[in-house]
Design a protein that fits this description.
This is Prolyl 4-hydroxylase alpha subunit Fe(2+) 2OG dioxygenase domain-containing protein. This protein is an alpha+beta fold. Helices cover 23% and strands 23% of the residues. Strand 10 and strand 11 form a beta hairpin.
Length: 288
């Protein structure tokens, strides 16, 4: 079973637990995944609104195709289906938990109290299974061609039911555009969120950047400190291609929000300042 975690790797904990693996799988696998990457029409699937409620005409808009649907779609190649299956398997969850088990125990000790030992956690597939500790997702994903000047996402963490998240890049060899890299941040001081996930650039500092380079994996443990964002992409006719990986915690058949950002919400003054900035710029601050 080929997965993006086939290589031995060491977890970096600065600024939060994560791994970056270059040349994660054999080049022949990557070449075939790119050659057989589903068309944008398949991934978009008739939708006019992408992630974060952004209209498709904006350009550089995120669309993802769920693993459960991909496995049923005859327009997606068997090679791609096998690759998706590998990343929603019990084996892949085991690889991830082996990487991050010490950090999970340190940061979220209550998870083992509720679910039992990490090594016993059961994998399922999001949208398909209910009785599982972690529902896995492996979404074939794109950002649509960019008109330039816009981030697909600013500084944020993933939703607090997500145990981990990752991106496996499959950049087309003819795509020579700049941008679309993943930036990693740390808090400058106190945590400040303006909802469950989002914050502003003025509260953080950039400490690392993972280039949008084919056959590169970035994978991280989610927490209130797992701040990341995507750099501006210059104008290009090429979509940004990747496999989006994540694991959603479940408890007794329901989403498990195993941490909260409520205590770090912005003050009234901070909210007024943000709203004024949005009015001037004509857009929400997470795209700024």
């Amino acid at each position: 079973m080929i997965t993006v975690l086939g290589k031995k790797t060491i977890v970096s904990r600065d600024p939060f637990p994560h791994v970056v693996i270059a040349n994660a799988v054999d080049n022949s696998v990557v070449e075939r995944l790119i050659a057989e990457f589903p068309s944008p029409e398949v991934i978009i699937d008739g939708r006019s609104i992408g992630a974060d409620a952004v209209p498709i005409e904006s350009g550089n808009v995120r669309f993802s195709y769920h693993a459960g649907k991909a496995l049923q779609n005859p327009r997606i190649s068997e090679f791609w289906k096998d690759f998706v299956r590998a990343h929603i398997s019990q084996h892949f969850l085991g690889e991830i938990l082996d990487l991050f088990k010490d950090d999970i125990r340190e940061r979220f000790p209550r998870l083992e109290e509720r679910h039992g030992k990490i090594e016993s956690w059961k994998a399922g597939v999001r949208g398909v299974d209910e009785n599982a500790d972690v529902l896995l997702e492996a979404q074939i994903s794109i950002n649509t061609p960019s008109k330039g000047g816009r981030r697909v996402r600013g500084v944020h963490i993933d939703k607090p039911d997500k145990l981990f998240a990752g991106l496996f890049y499959l950049r087309h060899p003819d795509d020579d555009s700049k941008g679309g890299n993943l930036e990693l941040y740390r808090w400058k001081g106190k945590r400040v969120f303006w909802d469950k996930q989002w914050t502003e650039f003025r509260y953080v500092e950039r400490v690392g950047e993972v280039p949008y380079r084919s056959n590169t994996l970035v994978l991280f443990l989610n927490s209130p400190d797992s701040l990341h964002g995507v750099t501006v992409r210059e104008k290009t006719d090429f979509p940004r291609l990747f496999l989006n990986l994540d694991g959603e915690m479940r408890y007794e058949g329901k989403k498990e929000y195993f941490f909260s950002t409520g205590e770090f919400r912005e003050t009234f003054t901070q909210k007024v300042r943000r709203k004024l900035k949005e009015r001037v710029r004509g857009r929400t601050v997470y795209f700024s």
